[in-house]
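Subgroup meeting minutes
Present: P.N., E.W., G.H.
Scribe: E.W.

1. P.N. recapped why we're keeping a running log of single-chain structure predictions: easier to compare across weeks, and new members can see raw inputs and outputs side by side.
2. G.H. added today's entry (212 aa).
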Amino acid sequence: MNLTQSAFPSLTPASRSPRPRAVMAPWRRWLHGLMLTWVLLCTGLMSAQAAEITIDQAAMEASDQGYRLSLAYSFDLNHGLEDALTRGVPLYFTTEVQMTRSRWYWFDETAVNTSRTVRLSYNVLTRQYHAAISGQLQQSFSNLEDALALIRRPPRWIVADLDTLKAGDAYAVGVRMRLDVAQLPKPFQINALNNSDWRLSSDWIEFTYQPE
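Output recorded in log:
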């Protein structure tokens, strides 16, 4: 008798235990598909919310009138926005500014919470672009690039009076600019909210400012 065969008889197909690889393969495929779906979903969300405006410069300085904020942006209008503009739909670019001061005994103090909007429009009859900063006079331009230059490098902006900030304290300054679809004419708002062409925004950036 062959010792190997008598001591370890071969298993029949009915009694043989399933191989772990055969049992785990469907689970692995399911888990791999789930992870792939999650990655694609996250990628899609990131693409939909991708920041298309870059803040190149943000600085605060004191002046006789108050604390002034200087900013510089980089961005371009996509084809959908440029087409809407030339058809008479105005575009609104809103910059939001928040300044907070840390307090060890309570929540952070919000010293400044303000915004400023630039309205960009096109007159089909005169073939001129117009840019108007809220509270200031409108300026006219013969081409789109010159009009966008006012938005990309806006004039310095008084965001706080001299008595608003406390000398020697450190303030966290948060800045963001976005295309403000809430200011569009009502018929265009719903379409803009569901159209990726209108998702134009920067990320929030933050820097520290300490008045002297």
